[in-house]
């Protein structure tokens, strides 16, 4: 049975990673919307854990997690295929993003230690590593992308397989109102919980750390109307900046073998 968890104070090493000058100013400026210290603390990630982050994108969370885990733990970015078999605009985009992330890890090895990558691009590449080898698998705002590709269940199953007994699957995602389509970028929280439970997870706790009651979720260009994307550009820009980033679910699932 899950419970709504109270805010948890970050430990000293996590607080230092969040406050570090290693992070870009652009990324740090979003902390008031994304609450990284509180989110990581809620999930319970310790400095000696093995943590896989699926589709880390531009590295917003990697800037915190990889240094935090560098000395005693292991950060693994689940990135796109960098040498795709097909040559399309989409595969080129994915490959470029994957190579950029690999280059970032290599450039900052002194800070990031043994941080590494694994290819994760369902349905072709869903093996995140040896079964029962990771303490955490995390995904931040990726569920709607997998929904568009009909790959959410594959992503959840891959996460379940790689986690140790008692390992945690942490999810942060734009939260839909009932009946909304994933085309909006928002996902139904109850449906995501049901799917996670279907593949074997137990919901341990939910948190309102990343909730935003100002988000009305009724925008012309979906969630991308809000910061940081601001898809309408200057149209009602001040209005959307005042709303802030999206209302988000924050979920903690645990792998428990039946």
| Count of β-strands | 8
CATH superfamily: Vaccinia Virus protein VP39
Arithmetic mean pLDDT = 95
Largest sheet: 8 strands, mixed
Low-confidence stretches: none
Q: What Rg do the Cα atoms give?
A: 18 Å
Domain unit count: 1
DSSP helical segment count: 11
- The proportion of residues forming helix, as a percent range, comes to 25-40%
Beta-strand proportion: 15-25%
List descriptors.
single chain, 258 residues, alpha/beta, Rossmann fold, 8-stranded mixed beta sheet, 20% strand, globular
What does this structure look like?
Helix 1 packs across helix 5. Helix 5 (about 60-70) links the parallel strand 2 and strand 3 (about 75-80). The chain has helices spanning about 10-20, 25-30, 30-35, 35-45, 60-70, 90-105, 110, 145-150, 150-160, 190-200, 235-245; strands spanning about 5, 50-55, 75-80, 115-120, 135-140, 165-175, 200-205, 250-255. The chain has a single domain, classed as Vaccinia Virus protein VP39 (Rossmann fold), CATH 3.40.50.150. An eight-stranded mixed beta sheet has the order 1-7-8-6-5-2-3-4, sandwiched between helices. The chain is of the alpha/beta class and about 260 residues long. It is globular. It has eleven helices and eight strands.
In short:
By secondary structure, the chain is of the alpha/beta class. It is built from 11 helices and 8 strands.
């Amino acid at each position: 049975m899950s419970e709504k968890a109270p805010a948890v104070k970050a430990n000293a090493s996590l607080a230092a990673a969040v406050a570090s000058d290693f992070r870009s100013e652009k990324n740090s400026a979003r902390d008031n919307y994304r609450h990284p210290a509180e989110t990581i603390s809620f999930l319970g990630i310790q400095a000696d854990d093995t943590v896989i982050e699926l589709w880390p994108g531009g590295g917003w969370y990697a800037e915190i997690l990889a240094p935090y885990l560098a000395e005693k733990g292991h950060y693994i970015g689940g990135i796109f295929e960098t040498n795709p078999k097909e040559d399309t605009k989409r595969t080129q985009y994915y490959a470029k993003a994957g190579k950029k992330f690999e280059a970032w890890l290599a450039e900052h090895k002194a800070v990031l230690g043994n941080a590494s990558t694994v290819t994760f691009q369902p349905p072709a590449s869903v093996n995140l590593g040896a079964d029962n080898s990771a303490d955490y698998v995390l995904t931040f705002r990726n569920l709607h992308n997998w929904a568009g590709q009909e790959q959410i269940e594959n992503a959840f199953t891959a996460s379940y397989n790689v986690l140790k007994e008692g390992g945690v699957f942490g999810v942060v995602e734009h939260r839909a109102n009932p009946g909304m389509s994933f085309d909006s970028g928002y996902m139904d929280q109850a449906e995501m919980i049901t799917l996670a439970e279907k593949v074997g997870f137990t919901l341990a706790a939910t948190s309102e750390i990343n909730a935003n009651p100002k988000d009305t979720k009724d925008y012309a260009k979906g969630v991308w109307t809000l910061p940081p994307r601001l898809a309408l550009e200057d149209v009602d820009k001040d209005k959307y900046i005042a709303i802030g980033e999206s209302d988000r679910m924050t979920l903690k699932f645990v792998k428990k073998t039946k």
